[in-house]
Amino acid sequence: MEFRIEPSSRTPIYRQLAEQIRGAIATGRLAWDERLPSVRELSRTLVVNPNTIARVYLELEREGILNTRPGLGVFVARPHHELTKRARRERLIQTADALLTEAVHLGFSAEDVAQLLAERATRFQWTPENASLK
User: Fold this and answer.
1) pLDDT number for residue 128
2) Per-residue buried b or exposed e for 4-36, using 16+ beta carbons within 10 Å of the residue's own CB
3) Cα dist. 64→15, 34, 79, 121 in Å?
4) Fewest CB atoms less than 10 Å from the CB: which of 15, 18, 87, 134?
5) Residue 10 contacts by C-beta under 8 Å, 6 or more apart in sequence?
6) Per-residue pLDDT tens for 10-68?
């Protein structure tokens, strides 16, 4: 998996990298139990301070997305849902409302948004355990 940083972006470097890792896992480009580059390797490749990489890995580990195996490295964690289904649903509703608010302000119709979401959803890796919100 190749990561890229856009230095001229207004998005902080650590957030760019965290979003790329989350996206790669969600789309299946990074598989469960796959080893990520070490902090040193990735900092050299991206020409980024190692503390920035360590911060990203730590943040994603706290979220349960990555896990560190002492002496072996950092790996993609198997998904587990610490939040209740109701709490996860509420979080998704908040995110959906933010997306829909932005779409309204950009002048898109409900049909445009539904079509875009349907197209984009095909790029993600869906599993049976996360197929229902009920």
Assistant:
1) 58
2) ebeeeeeeebbebbbebbeebbeeeebeeeeeb
3) 16, 14, 8, 23
4) 134
5) none
6) 999 999 999 999 999 988 899 999 999 999 999 999 999 999 999 999 999 998 899 99
